[in-house]
Amino acid sequence: MPKLAELTGDENSGESSRTFVFEDEGHTLGNVLKSIICKYPDVNFCGYTVPHPAENKMHFRIQAAKSVRAIDVLRRGLEDLERVCDHTIDTFEAAVAKYHEKESK
């Protein structure tokens, strides 16, 4: 199975509502991605579940305005998350460099 798939049987709910299944993911990605996507004005609902602790997968549900595709919302959320991570790494590395520079004097 690929790392990301749509939940079987969900295709009848329209393009704006989908449940995606992430393999080898859990609360770490689910919680932060939900926090980002819930802030979008065109999203009516966003949530995730980990169906069972023994299964290494996460179900991620998006319900958006009728004019918006859920897959596009997911893509935008993942891109925004990537930008947040890049900013965090850059900020951390700059702080470490500043610390080492200060300590070497």
From TrEMBL:
<dbReference type="GO" id="GO:0003677">
    <property type="term" value="F:DNA binding"/>
</dbReference>
<keyword id="KW-0240">DNA-directed RNA polymerase</keyword>
<dbReference type="GO" id="GO:0046983">
    <property type="term" value="F:protein dimerization activity"/>
</dbReference>
<feature type="domain" description="DNA-directed RNA polymerase RBP11-like dimerisation">
    <location>
        <begin position="19"/>
        <end position="90"/>
    </location>
</feature>
<comment type="similarity">
    <text>Belongs to the archaeal Rpo11/eukaryotic RPB11/RPC19 RNA polymerase subunit family.</text>
</comment>
<dbReference type="GO" id="GO:0005736">
    <property type="term" value="C:RNA polymerase I complex"/>
</dbReference>
<dbReference type="GO" id="GO:0003899">
    <property type="term" value="F:DNA-directed RNA polymerase activity"/>
</dbReference>
<dbReference type="InterPro" id="IPR008193">
    <property type="entry name" value="RNA_pol_Rpb11_13-16kDa_CS"/>
</dbReference>
<keyword id="KW-0804">Transcription</keyword>
<dbReference type="Pfam" id="PF13656">
    <property type="entry name" value="RNA_pol_L_2"/>
</dbReference>
<dbReference type="GO" id="GO:0006383">
    <property type="term" value="P:transcription by RNA polymerase III"/>
</dbReference>
<protein>
    <recommendedName>
        <fullName>DNA-directed RNA polymerases I and III subunit RPAC2</fullName>
    </recommendedName>
</protein>
<dbReference type="InterPro" id="IPR009025">
    <property type="entry name" value="RBP11-like_dimer"/>
</dbReference>
<dbReference type="GO" id="GO:0005666">
    <property type="term" value="C:RNA polymerase III complex"/>
</dbReference>
<dbReference type="InterPro" id="IPR022905">
    <property type="entry name" value="Rpo11-like"/>
</dbReference>
<dbReference type="GO" id="GO:0006362">
    <property type="term" value="P:transcription elongation by RNA polymerase I"/>
</dbReference>
<keyword id="KW-0539">Nucleus</keyword>
<dbReference type="InterPro" id="IPR033898">
    <property type="entry name" value="RNAP_AC19"/>
</dbReference>
<dbReference type="InterPro" id="IPR036603">
    <property type="entry name" value="RBP11-like"/>
</dbReference>
